[in-house]
Amino acid sequence: xxxxxxxxxxxxxxxxxxxxxxxxxxxxxxxxxxxxxxxxxxxxxxxxxxxxxxxxxxxxxxxxxxxxxxxxxxxxxxxxxxxxxxxxxxxxxxxxxxxxxxxxxxxxxxxxxxxxxxxxxxxxxxxxxxxxxxxxxxxxxxxxxxxxxxxxxxxxxxxxxxxxxxxxxxxxxxxxxxxxxxxxxxxxxxxxxxxxxxxxxxxxxxxxxxxxxxxxxxxxxxxxxxxxxxxxxxxxxxxxxxxxxxxxxxxxxxxxxxxxxxxxxxxxxxxxxxxxxxxxxxxxxxxxxxxxxxxxxxxxxxxxxxxxxxxxxxxxxxxxxxxxxxxxxxxxxxxxxxxxxxxxxxxxxxxxxxxxxxxxxxxxxxxxxxxxxxxxxxxxxxxxxxxxxxxxxxxxxxxxxxxxxxxxxxxxxxxxxxxxxxxxxxxxxxxxxxxxxxxxxxxxxxxxxxxxxxxxxxxxxxxxxxxxxxxxxxxxxxxxxxxxxxxxxxxxxxxxxxxxxxxxxxxxxxxxxxxxxxxxxxxxxxxxxxxx
Length: 532
Ligand SMILES: Cc1cc2nc3c(=O)[nH]c(=O)nc-3n(C[C@H](O)[C@H](O)[C@H](O)COP(=O)(O)O)c2cc1C
Ligand SMILES: Nc1ncnc2c1ncn2[C@@H]1O[C@H](COP(=O)(O)OP(=O)(O)OP(=O)(O)O)[C@@H](O)[C@H]1O
Ligand SMILES: [Mg+2]
Known about the structure:
It catalyses: FMN + ATP + H(+) = FAD + diphosphate. It is an enzyme of class 2 (transferase). InterPro entries: MoaB/Mog-like_dom_sf, MoaB/Mog_dom, PAPS_reduct_dom, Rossmann-like_a/b/a_fold. Its EC number is 2.7.7.2. This is FAD synthase. By secondary structure, the chain is of the alpha/beta class. It is built from 15 helices and 20 strands. The strands form 5 sheets. A 6-stranded mixed β-sheet has the order 3-2-1-4-6-5, with helices on one face. A 6-stranded mixed β-sheet has the order 10-9-11-16-15-14, sandwiched between helices. Helix 1 (13-36) crosses helix 3, helix 3 packs across helix 6 (195-204) and helix 10 crosses helix 11. It is elongated, with a radius of gyration of 31 Å. Mean pLDDT is 85; it is low at 1-22, 95-100 and 263-279. The protein binds flavin mononucleotide, adenosine-5'-triphosphate and magnesium ion (MG). The site of flavin mononucleotide has 10 residues, from loops.
């Protein structure tokens, strides 16, 4: 391991003084720039990140923490947050010891021969500009850290990891290092920041970032696996060298890693049952489709409100030839939702879940769905954009604003008639409808997505007969009929104990329905049944 503390280089005293003043002013400027901005969401993200940093600085002494800095945009954000956070932390403590004039944070950079030269240059420049005590490590992560810990009392490392990074899976803002790694606390202050948040911060604070981001790079790995993001390519018919727009102009943060060579395939968005793209057309048409409905609502379970959407959904599903396996009602409680979805997800092509969708404390449906699939809730930039329009200037980016969706399994179903897209997580569709009129509207949009969501099947036909025969008189004949017509669903219900009895024949072939009805009629005297 080669360590080059930057302060070991000869620096003139005036420069050092200059640098310290600059560092101090700069720290204040970050805080002022954010507080002076009218971007409520950025303020919320900033305050949360500063809170995490201040908790970490309260838990660990400055000698026990380090910043993992690699010149990338995320670690650049982190660097400035730490400068501001350290300044605020020190400000909260007594300033009398003069601790404010330096920023003694150990900074580690794992330099690799395949790093972009621009990344190296930016890293060194940033270290010297902000007076960082830089340790350059040229071995692999694990042994580099082991050696670092032998020589230093480090217990926690700040990282610029964000949800959506492959390495973020399972991490929280404070996550102990993984098994097999030297023991330390990973502190991730910007874990819940989106791509847009990163750029909002860097541009609002007017801080320098690596020049590659102005050349269309949106996420930077090694020279072997990183190219500019093709979504930022400026088409040029003259055949000259390709040009790219700067990274901050990428509108969809989900494509941040489009310029990175993929190491593994993304999680399939298809449901385990309805892998429609894979079926051949014939088997697709033949296969039965089954749906179910889950209502989330304590108000239904207390009897205060009647569920009108479940029965309507059943009718809708039947109208497109689907069968309905069950409708259930569960409490507004994450575990109740999760258990029900978990139980139903592999036996239905689609599960429709409604109620408990929104920003209130009781709106836990998406959290329950996330739990059922073993993923967590993560900020969804695209969904947020819709909410921003709906919520307007009151939008603060707070956790309560429901832009948190199950990570890695969410698909947004856009339709011009919907102000906010429908949410589909694997084979679970989250409906926002709260009454039949709203459900009618959402259903029409769902039917429009035919191929991708709802496969339209041959509709069910049905015929109903009523009779005043007693149960005992008719029971045996009906049992036999069920055996003769296994392709039909023969359903009986009565309007009262004294009758009449309604017998419904449901199936996909009208002729079979007619045949079954006639077979039943033949077993009794004429006029015993009447058609409804
Ligand atoms: C300071 C530091 C600590 C890390 N700790 C862990 C860890 O505890 N567990 C782990 O699986 N990877 C850990 N990593 C590795 C990262 O998860 C990731 O593999 C690395 O940053 C390379 O990312 P890349 O493949 O996107 O370039 C750590 C990396 C750094 C720089
Ligand atoms: N070579 C490295 N040296 C030091 N820290 C690193 C290194 N590679 C990754 N890290 C840490 O892991 C974090 C996440 O890396 P990641 O590549 O996702 O972000 P970034 O490099 O800051 O930005 P970008 O996504 O644009 O590449 C970094 O912010 C940094 O804290
Ligand atoms: Mg990077």
